[in-house]
Amino acid sequence: MLLNEKSKFTDREIIEKGSRILIKELGYSGFLRFIRHSEGISKEDYLKIEDEIFNDMSLDEIYDNAKEHWENKQ
Hints:
Blueprint: H1 11-39, H2 46-53, H3 59-73
């Protein structure tokens, strides 16, 4: 089973690390475009959406699907 040690980050740390990664991958202008776009996204409860998306899936299944998606994307 996958153990995510990174889940111990505070919300602030997650935002800072995520921002750095987005800037690295997209550049500053791409990062700003992403932020502008995401501000308009629905304000629905992410945890509720997550429950609906991953309903009845084990963590291993989620990991395997994400890994397969990543490998097919490259």
